[in-house]
Structure formats: C-alpha cells, structure tokens
Amino acid sequence: MSKNSKNKKLNNKSVNTAPNTNELTQVLICMGTGGVAAGALDVWASFKEELVLRNIPAMLGKRSCKVKQTGCRGLCAMDVLVDIIDPKLGKHTYKHVKPEMVSDLIEKHILGHEPIVKWFAGKDYEQFYVKQERTVMKQYGLVDPESIDDYIEAGGYIALKKAFKMEQVEVIEEVKKSGLRGRGGAGFPTGMKWGFCHATHGNDKYIIVNADEGDPGAFMDRSLLEGNPHAVLEGLIIGAYAIGCNHGYFYCRAEYPLAVKRLKIAIEQANEHGFLGDDILGSGFNLDVKVKEGAGAFVCGEETALMASIEGMRGMPRPRPPFPAHQGLWKKPSNINNVETFANIPLIINNGGDWYAGIGTEKSKGTKIFSLTGKIRNTGLIEVPMGITIKEVVFDICGGIPGRKRKFKAAQMGGPSGGCIPESLVDVPIDYDSLVEVGAIMGSGGVVVMDNTACMVDMSRFFLTFTQQESCGKCVPCRIGTKTMLEILTRITLGHGCEGDVDLLISLANDIKGSSLCGLGQTAPNPVLSTIRYYRDEYDAHIREKRCPANSCKALLKFEVIEELCKKCGICLKQCPVDAIIWKPKTKAVIELDKCIKCQTCIDACPFLAIH
Amino acid sequence: MVELTIDGKKITLDENATILEAAKSANIYIPTLCYHEKLGPFGACRICVVEIEPGNKLVPACITKVMRNMVVYTNSEKVLRSRKMNLELLLARHPTDCLTCEKGGECELQRVCFQVGVSKGKGEFYNRLVDVFGVQPQDIRIEDSRSIIERNLNKCILCKRCIRICHEVQALGAIQFSRRGVKMEMGTFWGEKLDCEFCGQCVDICPVGALTNKLSKYKARVWQLDKVQTICSYCSMGCSLFLNVKNDRLVKVHGEVNVGRNDGNLCYKGRYGQLFVSDPARITTPLIRDKSSGELKKATWDEAISLVADRLGDIKKKYGGNSIAGISSARCTNEDNYVFQKFFRAGLGSNNLDSSTRFEHAPSIGVLTKSLGWPAMSNPADDL
Ligand SMILES: Cc1cc2nc3c(=O)[nH]c(=O)nc-3n(C[C@H](O)[C@H](O)[C@H](O)COP(=O)(O)O)c2cc1C
Ligand code: SF4
Ligand code: SF4
Question: Which residue of A has its CA nearest to B186?
Fold first, then answer.
C-alpha cells in the first residue's frame, strides 16, 4: 500500500543520491540480550527488508551496505543501539531505534549522508565510554559473534598460535606474571590454579568454563558469550594446552539460549579451522569441547556442584579437599575458571603478562566488567580498570541517579554474596582487597545501585530470599539458618521486630558463615551483616518506632502526605488508580484512607518524597 | 604416621585418618549426625565441627583429614556455640513427639541433644526462635502406603544416610533428594510411593524416627528389648543378625556394623522375614498321627524320635538302606545339614539325599556353569 509507493519514490531518489560505490557503509545493530529484548530483531529485519525493497545492492552494482549483528555494547538502557559507519562521515550512534525509524535512517543517513541529529545517542552515550577501558570488550560491537572470519580479521586466534609455539610452563608463567585473578568471585590467582592442575599426571584432565552466572542482576558472562564467544573459546584452548587437558566443557545456563547457540557455532567453526579437535595446529595436541546446559540452580555455579551436575548428579557441593585440581570432574584432575577469566587470556598472551600487570592496582590487575542495574540512569555493562572508584562508575560513567529528589544511597557489590557500599564510601577503589575491607566483595561483577527510596532492611531481605531458596539444602546452617534469618528480617519489615533481633541476626549470621560447607552458605549472610554495619539506625527504626525511613516497607507506611514537604504539584492525584487523593491547584494533597488501596503508586510518583 | 594434639592429648596415627577417627582412638567424643562409618564422606550436619590451629577455623571432624602438628579443640567456646546453634536450628523444626516416636531411646538426635545440652525451650537461641518468632516444626505429609516402611518426613533431618546407603551399599538408588533449600526432602522418582526392594537398610540407618518399621510399631521401647545375636537361616550367606526380643517374643530384627560377614547389612528376608518365629500358629512340638482317629496329636521329642528310629530301623532291615530318601532344608545350618547327610550315608546307608536349596538353585547353577564355568559366586563373600 502506501508504504510501497513511498518506497518506490524513495528508490528513485536514492538512485540519484547514492555516492561512494567503492566503500561499504556499515550498519551495526546491537544484538545482545538487552538489544534483542528492546526489539533488535525487528530493527534488523526492517533494515534487511528496506535494503532489499529498495534494491540498493542491485542498483549500485555492488553491495554498498553491510548490515551486521553485534554483541552487547554495554549501554542497555539506550537499546536498540545502531551504529552507522559511513566511510566519509565516520561513525554515528543512534539510540532507541525502532523499526519505523529505519526507512528514514536509510534515506537520510545512508543514502542522503545527512545524519539525523535528534536521534543521536548523545552526550550520555559518549560519557559512558570516556572512563571505561575496553580491553576484553574491545571487539564487542565490532565483530559478528557468529563469524569466525570476523574474529580472525580482528586479530583472533593469533594468541592461540603464539601460545602453541611456547612451552606449557611458559604460558602459565605468563599468566602468573599478569597477576590475573579469577573473575568468578573468589579472585584466586589464575596462573597459580593452572600450575596446580598442570602438576598432576596424565592428559586425561578436564578444563571447564563456568558460565552458570546465577547472581541476580549479573549479565557479564552472558554478554561475553553472546558478543564474542571465540575470545572465550580461544582462552579455553590456550588454558587446555598450558595445563594439558584433552577435554573441555562449557557449563552454561540453559536460560541463556543465545549464548548456548553462539557457543555451539563457535565450537563448530573452531573445529573446522583446526583450532579444536585432533592435532591442533599440527602440534599433536588434542582437545574436544562440549557445551553442557545447566538446569538453573545458583548453587551449580559452585565448582564442585557444577561438576556433580555435569556428571548427571544432583548439583550439590562436596567438601574440599580434594580440590578439583586433584580430583574434579569424573574424579580426574580438573581446572575451572570463569568466562571472563578465560576472555582475558588471549590478551595476556598477545601483549604479555607485563603489559597486563600494568593495568589496575598493585594486587588487582587488569580490567573488570561490571553489570549495573537498579536506580541508575544508564544501566548496562561497563569495563573499567581495577582501582577506579564507585563514584566514578556510578556518576561519571553511568550518569548518576535519575529523579530530582533522588540521591545515591548505596551500591550492592557482589550480588547476594556481597555487601553494600554506602554513600560515605563512594571513594573506595574497586579492587579485591579494598572491597573486602569495607564488607563487600568483587564478586562476579553485578552492581545494584540503590537510591534513597530503598530500604536497606528490605534489600537484605530480598537477597536472603534468593540465597535461602537457592541453598542446595545440604548443610544445616545454610538450609535452616538462612531461612531463620529470613523469617526474622520479614518480621522486622512487617513491624513485628523486637529488641535484640539485630544481635540475634548478627550471631546467626556469623555462625552460618563459620560453619557452612560451601561458598553459598559462607557468604549468604553478607548482605545482612553489611547493611547492619552501615544502616543499623534503619533496623532500629523498624523495630523500635515501627517506621521505615525509606518509606518502602508497605506494612509500616501510613499513606499520609507530609505537609511541610508537599509542593502542591498534584502529580500523585494523576497517578492514583482509585482517585483516593483530594487535591486542587495550590492546595496540599490529602489521601482518603478509606479509598486508598495501599498500592504505593503515589509514594513512588511524588517527586518530593512527601508521602509516607 | 602423623602426630597431632586433640584437647591437649597427643595422638599419633595414620595420615589418612580423619579428625573424628583420631578423636575416637583417644576416647574423645565428638557428636555426629550425618556421619556413618559405613558411608562415604558427606559433611552436611556440621554438628561435628571442631576448631583447628593454625587458623582457628571451624572444620567438620568427620571429613577433615589429620595433619602433622595440627591442634584440635573439640569443646572450645567457638565450637560449642556453633554446635549448639546448629542443633537448635535442627530442633526448632523437628517435631519433638519423642513420647510416641518409634526411635525414642535410640534416636541419635535425642542422644546428641542430651550430650550437648540442648533442648526445646532451653537453648540460647531457641527460646527466641520458637516463642518470639513462632517457628513451626515442618509439616509434610506422612506417607501412608501399604509398604512396611513408614516415612514421616516431618522428623527428617536430611542427613542423607538413607539415600547414601541405598546408593552406596545397596547400589539401588530407589530414593534421592528432591527440591532445594528448606523445601528439600528425601523423595522418590516423581514423588511416587516407595516401591523398591524393601530391604529396610534405610530404616536401620535412619538416625531419627523419619523412617520406621511398621511391623514393630508401638511394640517395644529399645530398653525393653533383649538382643540375641544369631545367623539368618534364609540362605547360605549366613548373615549375622540380632533378634530383638521382648517377653520371649520376637519384635524386630536388625544388623550391626562390623558384626558378621554382612557387616550389618540385611536383605528383606533377613530383616522382615523372621517374625514367623513368634507366630501363635507356629508348630512348636512334634505331632504324631493317632492310628485310630487319624488325627495329629502333640507328642514329646523323646516319643517322636524313638518312633522315627524304630520305623527307620524296620524299613532298613526289611528293604535295605537304599529304600530310604532324605530331603533336608536350606533353612538348616551347614552343620545340621552335614550331620543329616552323614546320618543318612553312614547310619542308614543311603545316598538318596536332596535339599530344597537344589530345587531353588538348580536353574541358576545351570546358567552359572554355562556362562562362568563355575556354579557358584565368583568372588569371596567379603567382596559383596
Ligand atoms: C554459590 C556459588 C555460586 C557461584 N557461581 C558462579 C558463577 O555463576 N560463575 C562463576 O564463574 N563462578 C561462580 N562461583 C565460583 C566458582 O565456584 C569458582 O570459584 C569459579 O568458577 C572459579 O573461576 P575463577 O578462578 O576464574 O574465578 C560460584 C561460587 C559459589 C559458592
Ligand atoms: S552451604 Fe548451603 S549451598 Fe552450600 S552445601 Fe551447604 S546447604 Fe548447600
Ligand atoms: S528399603 Fe532398601 S532399597 Fe528401599 S529405599 Fe531403603 S535402602 Fe533403598
């Protein structure tokens, strides 16, 4: 219908205006999970359709426009992000691209060479990259994750070839020199771990990539696998060679279907290119790699539970020692590392351990990828050098906290096993040891940002709900202890807490940490301990005054307008679903409690936090 | 060999030993729940935690190997605190209906709580957990199937001993954990009713009253029972078992670790098939048929034996020993059977002997001879 006729018209026009037949204009569409969730598939289809409809390739006699899917760029809050790289004009990035914008983009920018300024991703987008140091994620957004040629073109598998010319111990030495520490949570020195497993006998060893990523709010590993699976695979092959493992596994969450698909494609392509399989690169070294999909249990990220799961058993941790390096998968020596750990390996081999050790702080080397979620302007993925401060991450890179009266309150680092960094400590550098000192951990890199409307008691209740459910149930302190702590926290948020509760929480927490079998139980009480450490007054307000200072715990809310704070704007009235608010211009709002259904909409809506 | 110190005592023993074994060798008691000497390392209940130096860490004694110059405290303040808390947590969700519980008196949870000094209402945390927070004992359905095993999961402390013995010793795997966290329970495939061999190994090893034997329910308390060690008469394995006798009546049967070739393991026949001995319908004296009325009448052993001796003597005299045949029972001991055949061959002069064992096992002997070339087991009994 009209679209077609419009196209025809445009077609004619485009014939006249199409210049530059020799060079390619590239359209890069973010097809990471964030992008796909925001509708990247539709945008992709529209580009393809429009380009075909307009017959651009035929018209120009040569493909003038290459549309590429790319992995996650990081700035998920602005998805779908589309780069248009014109050989003359350079790169322009558009945010929030929708299918209906595609024909204009093609007509004006690609064919007309006039970028559409109003759709630019803008200052925030540029700011987002200024303080980042993208080494691991450098190729993300540039290479097509489903094409090994793209990866090789971008310098992929050079490190592999280099490593195969080195002795096994030389590779391990290089990794040791780099100071790389495991990115899966505990931060164990990777080179040392490889050394342990290398020292065991035989070639019947396993190397495993831990891609279980179960922390709520974390999606670093997912993006790495979806955005550049070959980089992780290359790291794995180098590791396998260095340690002497002939069998490899990717243990990937089944909830990451795109990652699984791209991994499988990558493995197949690597096999075809002789980077996997028998006699890799003529070295006589063999490696077969399989993908095992997990069944969605957080505890299966714990290394011994993960191995049990691969073996087809219930994912339950077992005591260590024996450590995996001696008795791991199928009782064979095994080495397990996180996705991001492996993704760092090709960089280290290419540039040398010393180069890598030059980035970061004295004891925490290199860069770290974080996923930021919560009350923050630019949610997404960032890669920063170790030692950067929380303040720089939250305010400079991610644009701070949205909302006029909203202030940064705390950042939860390390997910359900970590702790919170309060506002007073925003200048703490992000490195393994400084974070532990203030009661948090580096964890795998999930950061949840909270503003002043977040109740810290409720926040610790949230994380404990998660760990309590995910406890494998094996040991008493973790299984019953965390449930008991959760019950206490729930009562506090319901206003039934009593004097002594906080002390009881602390003592339970310490005992659970001290006597649980695996890392899950040993760290589960951390969010509670850290919020008590920094926000004990909030706990006391809940218990003694039956009041939630952040106005978040529903059972403790009065649903009243605080007269001194009300600025008479009337926004609450517009939002209230049941018209329970009486307001006229220039008067203060009043809530009619008999109509109010306690949905909290007005509390969230009031820009002045004047309802409690 | 390594030397270590436990509670001030110097102990020297094999380096593969665990702290628990070391403590046992020095007569130092460390309470345990999920540990069982027959089963592999598990380390779940955390009741056996001890404090070790260097590091002042709490470690479970049942799975931690001894190390040279290790210093262990089994009763430090830190240890007692953690042990008590874990016991109280367990107890908080455990229905303490010990008055009517089958395991009362032999319950390991009861014993450990007694020894550590923890009880409902008296614990350091417990008062608060129950009175203030109203923590309720778990409430899961009790399996009401027609099986001889009663599963009351409310009492289950999830030590996994039942599952472990079913997998590790029986190699059957009829049961497994299902679900996670506090919702975890010992379950069957798809939550079906227990449908297995019913060897009852899991019942024997259950430390609490979660798995009990329905046949002996409410019949006796453990201290009312005399335990008589004997050999199972069902098959030629000769498993040692203990008859639990109250007022001269057999109530139940159990096996004990380290006793007999079977090391305490029993099959369904050995464990549940013995109760006939106390059955009122069982014949307990010889019976002689009255010639005139044709009825069987009670007799003394002397009467019966002299009757049999007379008749056998007559027959042998008249028709020769070869005219007599004897069938013995697999339920008799080897010694009995030996004497029986000796009596036939040497006493009566007859080789016409058979046994119920042969009826039962003739087919298997045939198959074994054909396939292995050897008509019996190819391994020693200890390997089983
Ligand atoms: C409960 C729990 C969950 C875990 N989940 C993950 C995970 O999702 N991904 C991961 O890489 N490591 C996870 N770990 C850490 C792993 O056990 C292991 O330490 C890590 O994979 C080692 O790799 P690295 O040395 O590269 O850090 C988890 C640990 C625990 C205790
Ligand atoms: S600490 Fe928790 S998750 Fe870990 S083994 Fe014990 S019960 Fe399972
Ligand atoms: S009765 Fe025997 S087979 Fe059945 S569950 Fe128990 S141990 Fe396993």
Answer: A473
Q: Is A174 left (phi over 0), alpha (psi -120 to 50) or beta?
A: alpha
What is chain A's length? 612
Q: How far apart are CA B178 and CA B290, in angstroms?
A: 63
Q: Which residue of A has its CA nearest to B134?
A: A487
Q: Tell me the percentage of chain A whose pLDDT exceeds 90.
A: 58
Q: What is the CATH number of domain A558-612?
A: 3.30.70.20
The Cα B139–Cα A510 span in angstroms is 28
DSSP A308-372: HHHTTS------SSSPTTTS-GGGS-EEEEEHHHHHHHHHHHHH-HHHHHTSB-SSSBSEEEEEE
For residue B101, give every residue at least 6 positions away whose Cβ sits within 8 Å of its Cβ, in sequence order, or none.
B107, B155, B209
CA–CA dist A58, A51 (Å, integer): 10
Q: Which CATH class for the B2-75 domain?
A: alpha beta
Query: Which pLDDT belongs to residue A63?
Result: 33
Neighbours of B290 (CB within 10 A): 10
Query: Sign of the CA dihedral A168, A174, A180, A186?
Result: positive
The CATH architecture of the domain made up of B89-216 is 2-Layer Sandwich (3.30)
* Token reading at A12: 């004619």
CATH of A25-126, one of 3.10.129.10, 2.60.120.200, 3.40.50.970, 3.40.30.10: 3.40.30.10
Handedness of CA A413, A415, A418, A419 (dihedral sign): positive
ipTM beyond 0.85? no
- d(Cα A323, Cα A128) in Å, to the nearest integer? 41
CA distance linking residue A361 with residue A387, whole number of Å: 6
**Residues 6+ away with beta carbon under 8 Å from B356:** B327, B328, B329, B330, B331
Q: How confident is the model at residue A253 (pLDDT cuts 50, 70, 90)?
A: very high
Distance of alpha carbon A386 from alpha carbon A179, whole angstroms: 12
For the CA of B173, the nearest atom of ligand 3: 8
pLDDT at residue B276 in the model: 86
Residues of A in contact with B179 (CB under 8 A): 473
Could you read off the pLDDT of B176-229 as tens digits, one per residue?
998 888 888 888 888 788 888 889 999 999 999 999 988 888 999 999 999 999
When the candidates are 3.40.50.300, 1.25.40.10, 3.40.190.10, 3.40.50.11540, the CATH number that belongs to A148-357 is 3.40.50.11540
Contacts 24+ apart (CB under 8 A), B26-34: B28/B74, B29/B74, B29/B115, B30/B61, B30/B74, B31/B83, B31/B111, B31/B112, B31/B115, B31/B116, B32/B61, B32/B62, B32/B112, B33/B90, B33/B108, B33/B109, B33/B112, B33/B157, B33/B159, B33/B207, B34/B62, B34/B159, B34/B160, B34/B161
What gap in Å lies between CA A531 and CA A455, rounded to an integer? 10
Provide the whole-model pTM.
0.83
- For residue A362, the number of C-alpha atoms closer than 13 Å in the C-beta half-sphere is 2
Query: CA A595, CA A576: separation in Å to the nearest integer?
Result: 11
A295 token code pair: 């069944």
Instruction: Find the CB nearest B158 among A321, A473, A481.
Output: A473
Cβ < 6 A, ligand 3 pocket:
B 162, 165-166, 170, 172, 174-175, 196-202
Residues of B in contact with A474 (CB under 8 A): 44, 158, 160
Residue A66 pLDDT > 70, yes or no? no
Q: Strand pairing of B49-53 and B176-178? A: unpaired
Confidence of residue B384 (pLDDT cuts 50, 70, 90): low
- Counting one residue from A and one from B, how many pairs have CB atoms under 8 Å apart? 101
Q: Which residues contact A206 (CB under 8 A, 6 or more apart)?
A: A245, A247, A248, A249, A328, A329, A330, A332, A333, A334, A335
